[in-house]
Structures are given as C-alpha cells and as structure tokens.
Amino acid sequence: MSDWIGALAQHHAAGEPCVLVTLIEERGSTPRNAGAKMVVTPQEAFDTIGGGNLEFKALAIARELLARGERQSRLERFSLGASLGQCCGGAAVVLFEPLGQPQAHITVFGAGHVGRALVPLLASLPCRVRWVDARSREFPAVLPAGVETIVNDDPVEEVDRLRPGSYCLVMTHDHQLDLALSEAILRRGDTQWFGLIGSKTKRARFEHRLRDRGLAAEALARMRCPVGLDAVKGKLPMEIAVSIAAEIISLYNARFGEASQGGETLTRLVSPSRRHSSL
After folding, report:
1. Alpha-carbon Rg of the chain, whole angstroms?
2. pTM for the complete prediction?
C-alpha cells in the first residue's frame, strides 16, 4: 500500500496510531504542492510530501509525536534552503495530526449473560475486543464495530495469541475452564490487567490450586477477583457489566492520562456500594 488514504483507513480500522502529515502552505519553490500528504507510523510511511531533507525531518517529528503519545496537532515551518539544504530554496508549512487514540486491547473469555452485556459497553470505548467462547450460538447475531468473535473448542489456546499488555477478563460458564485460563494468563505475566469474575471464596479456592501448580504469590496478586468497581451496586448482568467496564475505564484513563467521553458517561452511573462477586 502506497497511498495515504488507504493507509489511513487501514490503520483506523485496526485501531493503530499514526500521524497524518500535510504540506499546507508553500512559498517559493517546494518539492510538492500544498495539499500533499503522507501517513507515518513508527515503522512505515505511506505516500510522500516530496522527499529529501524536508520529508526526512517530517518523519522524525511524526515519530517523535507517536513515541510521546501526543494527541495535539502541531505546525512547523521549514526554510528549505537555509535550514534543510534543499536546492529548491522555498519555504513550507507542515501540519502534523496525530490520529488514533490509544486503544486498550481487551480479550473477554465467555459469552454468557454478563459477557453479552459487557462487550457492547467496551466496544463503545477506545477498545479493541476479542471475544472468545467455545459455543458459537452464544454470540449475538449482530456485533458492534471493533469486536472480533473467536470460536475455539479449547479457549486456553487463545491465551498464547494475546497481545502483550492486553486487558483480560475471564467469565466463562465453567469453573474448571476459568481455572485453566487463569493459570495460563498468569504464567504469561505480561497482561496489563487480568480480571476473574467470582466471589472471595472462589478467589481463595483458585489461589490454593494455583499455588499447588507452582504459581508464586507475586503472580497471584495480579489477579483481580472479585472484579469491578466497589462503587457500583446491583447483581443484574448489566449492573455487573457497568461495574467491570468502569474498572477498566479507570485503569485505562490512569494509563493514558485523560478521560474519554465514554468513560465519563459510565462513571456517572456509579453509585456507592460494593464490588461484584457474581457467578
């Protein structure tokens, strides 16, 4: 792919950040006319604003913005002859637009009642959701954008396919499967967050069994069970889903440094109570 339009669409669909670089003003002789664009990612560039030192400098600035996680647009003026040594000798004004908010990659194991209430909430946030279950009939016929369903007779296999830094939630219909998934996720040790739906009794039972399987106390401490914000009341599937989504939002906002509109909406639903221990 070489055109900036196709690259921009592809990276937007994949939830991957990039910078749209636009030559917005030209004075004198410049390599390309105003309106030339390119899309820059940490590893690649698509299309061109003219090559040479101007493009080399623009690539460096765009990748600096990506590395810092910047979201604000930036204008830069370049004197092509004096500062960049290009023979055309004009001047150019370049706009840098970071696109694609940081995306939380979330894998939900289990398509039961709570899963069906939770996944649409997560899909309305800056999240990419992988939804795993062995039972294809449990998935709804219509899925929100940004949700990928995975039918696997052995859901534990999907743990090996997690992206590093993923958020993981285990809420299947089978406690033995929950235990196997918990062990596999904790052995990876590279998840951003791991939540297991269940009671304090379930947590104690799982901790005992996982210790017997050789997992250290430091690994077990990474398991959130019961899961969900303490401040959300109710045991209906949607109430539990809101509790769990609110916890993920709070972690996501702390990680990326600003609240999303979706997070503020869900936070307003929170009322004083206790953490959920259903299922």
Report:
1. 23
2. 0.67
